[in-house]
Design brief:
The protein has 642 residues and is mostly helical. 48% of the residues are buried.
């Protein structure tokens, strides 16, 4: 970079920041605290830019000096993280983004297609310092992007939110969710040694925000019960080891973060707060726990019957949906049902095969059959994220020539309505959907969705420990702590559903693990994954991160069913994924270094995974299927023939 240009750039940054500093800071302590801290952070970024321009980044001393300054900037960032992450999360990614390139959209693909977002900021700058050959221009770009993005938080469109208390409790909710899901996991902290010190700094900074808020908005104060519990949480964290592998994540979340979330939710309800921020799109104000199954929603679990709330009516729709789930009438040959591959007693998977048979039975399907349990907590569906709604996903399967081969929708509908029991039911149900006055395929598949979605409401022993203060074994607790730290599982499988949906639970993450084609690791699986839907170098061989709830019962594992036990899966991750096992993969997102898990740690991790088995009440199949006016359809077998 030209030296004159660099000096001019720094001078302009100083002038702009100086001008921002003299903006009106509001009339209360709360808004003044915001402006004071963001000015300090912006100044720290400018100092970092100046340091990068002066230091010789090819020397260890030069890099260490820059690394130390980045650490200082990150601590200042923690003082404003509560605001920045909520008020403009897209801009936040430029300040402290964890990835060089991101494709997942924060408003998710239900509304717009994925687009490429260049990452920048402090985390990437710190990681870049560890590269063998680094360029000063590239490092300056990362820091400069962070500094430029910070200026956005001075804009009137942002600061106007500070004049009213409404945003605070919603921003605080996101802060608490991140305390449970990412702040203690290393998800966006490049130096493990800094994770817990940064946590402590953040907790203290937020406590000061609480004090300023209560002084500034006495009409809607943070309740005493909350403040006392928060002080106890700070004390707990302060007395924990600074090594995040030794931090007690289990008791921190169970005894402090989760109860704080419940209290904050109550204040949101008590003060009648209403959000217009897309951060809150999926979250339910009525949830009392992070581990409440109603805490967030990824999918409409009722399909076209979304307006139906009457439990008796929903039970009626569910009953018909159950019949259809077991009825091969939806398939092209009337011999294959939904239950053929998604066997309810096998947690709606097909545990007997690596991948299920294709429609014609001569070959197997490309991918492993995923469980339908907890599918409602995914914004994108299928392992490659092909679908954004359960209705579209179900219709795709019914019409797919290698799955159900049901043919065109009119043919399927005609067959279903040839059965009087179905026809009478859907004549009643169509009255519940004023936008669809005529029975169509959406009514049919929505009934199926209502049926299988009902199995997503059950809880595990781990949930009971978090929600009802029930005990779990010491091995489970230790396994969860390993999951959140040394094993690095929680950087992809986020609390509470342990899938790829992270706070504020409005986007879906995909990962490249380097899954092999066979257990000999002779080559990577040929399935290109997400790149089929969104072609890009970063998405090649990427797959949606699924939930690990009920994992003990949903083998085989990975998109191609290559592993048949939890032990095999853990060993794969422990080795560093495909690259760690010797495969050449340029875009693997999983760490390629060995986790160095001991035998005992692996056993404890497995114990935790088993604590996520949900206490699901499975049902017997229907005793018979509805008779059809078409006699050729009356030889159908419950559950199909294969």
């Amino acid at each position: 970079m030209n030296k004159t240009y660099l000096i001019a750039l720094l001078l302009i940054s100083l002038v702009v920041t100086a001008n921002l500093s003299f903006k009106s800071h509001g009339n209360n302590r709360y808004t003044k605290l915001y402006h004071s801290r963001i000015n300090e952070f912006s100044q720290s970024e400018i100092e970092l830019m100046s340091l990068v321009s002066r230091e010789n980044i090819q020397t260890e001393n030069g890099r260490n000096a820059i690394r130390h300054k980045i650490d200082e900037c990150r601590l200042k960032l923690k003082g404003i993280d509560l605001w920045l992450r909520y008020l403009d999360p897209l801009t936040y990614h430029k300040i402290n983004g964890p990835l060089p390139v991101e494709w997942e959209t924060e408003v998710f693909e239900k509304f717009e297609p994925p687009y490429r977002r260049e990452g920048a900021g402090l985390s990437l700058a710190a990681l870049y310092l560890d590269e063998k050959n680094i360029e000063k221009d590239s490092l300056l770009h990362l820091v400069q992007s962070s500094q430029q993005s910070t200026k956005i938080y001075f804009a009137d469109s942002i600061t106007v939110n500070l004049d009213k208390p409404d945003h605070f409790y919603l921003a605080n909710r996101l802060f608490l969710l991140n305390l449970a899901a990412i702040y203690t996991t290393g998800f966006e902290c490049p130096e493990p040694r800094n994770i817990i010190p940064e946590l402590g700094s953040m907790l203290e900074s937020v406590q000061q925000v609480y004090t300023a808020f209560n002084e500034s908005f006495p009409a809607s104060p943070i309740k005493k019960e909350y403040l006392e519990l928060y002080m106890n949480a700070m004390a707990f964290a302060k007395h924990q080891p600074t090594n995040f592998n030794e931090f007690d994540h289990y008791n921190f979340i169970k005894n402090y973060v989760n109860p704080l979330f419940g209290l904050n939710q109550k204040m949101i309800r008590d003060y009648g707060l209403v959000s217009n921020n897309f951060n809150d799109f999926s979250l339910d104000d009525n949830a009392v726990s992070i581990f409440d199954k109603s805490m967030y929603k990824g999918q409409n679990a009722k399909g076209v019957y979304i307006a139906v709330d009457d439990e008796a009516t929903l039970a009626e729709i569910r009953s018909v949906g159950k019949l259809l789930f077991y009825d091969p009438i939806l398939s092209g040959n009337n011999k294959r049902s939904c239950a053929s591959c998604h066997k309810p007693t096998e947690y709606f998977t097909d545990t007997g095969r690596f991948t299920s048979l294709q429609f014609e039975t001569a070959q197997s399907l490309l991918r492993n059959t995923p469980s339908l349990i907890n599918v409602v907590y995914n914004h994108l569906l299928m392992l490659d994220g092909k679908h954004t709604s359960l209705i579209n996903q179900a219709k795709d399967v019914v019409g797919n020539p290698i799955e159900m081969s049901g043919g065109d929708e009119k043919t399927v509908l005609k067959k279903v309505l040839s059965c009087d029991e179905y026809a009478k039911a859907f004549k009643r149900f169509v009255k519940l959907t004023p936008n669809s006055k005529k029975i169509n395929i959406d009514h049919i598949v929505s009934a199926v969705i209502v049926y299988y979605s009902s199995f997503s409401k059950f809880y595990s022993a781990f949930d009971d420990a978090m929600n009802e203060n029930k005990s779990i074994s010491s091995n489970c607790e230790k396994g969860f702590n390993i999951f959140m730290s040394k094993a690095q599982c929680a950087t992809c499988h986020f609390v509470p559903q342990f899938n790829g949906t992270r706070p504020p639970y409005i986007s879906t993450e995909f990962e490249v693990l380097g899954v092999p084609a066979d257990t000999a690791f002779s080559k990577i699986s040929p399935d290109s994954g997400r790149s089929r839907i969104n072609p890009a170098s970063q998405t090649m061989n990427a797959f949606r991160t699924g939930s690990i709830r009920n994992a003990e019962h949903t083998k085989p594992y990975m998109h191609n069913g290559v592993f048949n036990s939890l032990e095999e899966v853990i060993n794969f991750y422990d080795a560093g994924g495909g690259v760690g096992k010797g495969l050449k993969i340029s875009n693997q997102t999983l760490s390629t270094d060995s986790l160095k898990l001991s035998k005992t740690e692996k056993e404890q991790l497995t114990a935790f995974l088993r604590s996520l088995n949900e206490n699901i009440k499975f049902e017997n199949p229907p005793s018979a299927l509805p008779a059809s006016k078409n006699k050729n359809l009356n030889g159908r077998k419950v559950g199909g023939e294969y």
